[in-house]
Please model this.
Amino acid sequence: MNADVLLVFGRGVRFRGGRWELTPASAARVRAARDHVLAHAPHRPRVIFSGGWPEVSTGAAPPPAGFREGDLMLRAATGLEEHADLFAETRSRSTLENFLRTIEDRLLEGYAFGAGHPLGLVTHDWHLPRVRFLAGKVLGLRGDALLDVPATGGELHDDRRALLAARFGLLGARRGDVLLRRERLMVALLRRPTTG
Model:
């Protein structure tokens, strides 16, 4: 099955050798998107590379404009524009914000997602449960309205605690501003130094 829109989630950038670059996991997600698009040609989807910097998960300061996750993923996908319409969202600092900023930037406008026209989620298998949960919260999409496009390669991560925190901390919330406020509160609590 193919998707009319692929949402590619960033996994960080780093400064190495005097330049900004994608982490291996972010690069793997670009490759997964490219492979999916080419495997389903001549279908021409919209591909949204979503990511600013991983401030929420790592506390990292923002890279300069033009060197955020979405920017670097877009550059790494050079040549793919012959087969897909490429866009970058570069303001998000978390997986939740990937969805919220993509909506704010109107990058999903005009699409009706469902079983016959799912939204493609490009990320690693370990990240997909939380991404699917947040797609349900933010977009109201579940089940066959979402198409998993798993990436392989890059650093591994155990996302189970983040999924549990999201399920608990976002319980009952639906509006973007409330979701974001709750996420910020959870992050502040998790970063608070422990005493004793």
